[in-house]
Amino acid sequence: MKRLALLHIIAFTLCLSLHAQVGEKRTDFAIGANAGMLMTKMDITPTIKQDFKYSPTFGFSARFICEKYFTAICGVAAEVNFANLGWKEVIEDGSGNTYSRDLTYIQVPILMQMGWGRERRGAKFVFEAGPQFGFNLGSKETYGGGVWDTSKRPNKVVEQYGLAVDHKIDYGIAGGIGLEVSTPVGHFLLNARYYYGLGDVFDNSKKGDFTRSAHQTISAKITYLFDLVKTK
User: Fold this and answer.
1) What is the pLDDT of residues 115-155, one digit of tens each?
2) Class level of CATH domain 2-229
3) Which sequence spans correspond to the domains of the chain?
């Protein structure tokens, strides 16, 4: 309930950013595409030792600039992205085994965006934060390292192997910073973003094997936007 309440507060804040016009009004709307790389892990309890798993991500982007308040350029950005999340285990029991789990998602971040710098031609610093939602499309396990042997695992946590996804819907909080360069042919944005999952992938009830199993992701992306509507 606390997690859902936090998402409601952020969504309400985004709505206020659209309606509380106390600065110079803007009606700039742009669309485009994005692509980049993800570094993913699973925040899981009981703990599993992991390395970051690297994978590409790409999707569509849209942004509405609604206001310039003093030096801050305010708006809302949304994306629909394809992402391969999951984790890569570090197995140090002498077995030589390797394991990784790919969890494929469609993700929809809806972020408040604020920028400081040149509004039309030039560069500006960008900060963004807000809720992100996702839907799981599938799961794939990769086993390696010869004969599979779990008897020597030092922490005895082996329930994740072969375990199906219980919760298809994912949700959490995303935030990041970036640099945007605006040109006559469009806007180019390079950003880094962190996603903290609030929803669990596996069953977190008393009958479940894990009390927490949520995504943690660091992304680096480049986005191109071109204006459909621009304030004169």
Assistant:
1) 999 888 899 999 999 999 999 999 999 999 888 888 888 88
2) mainly beta
3) 2-229
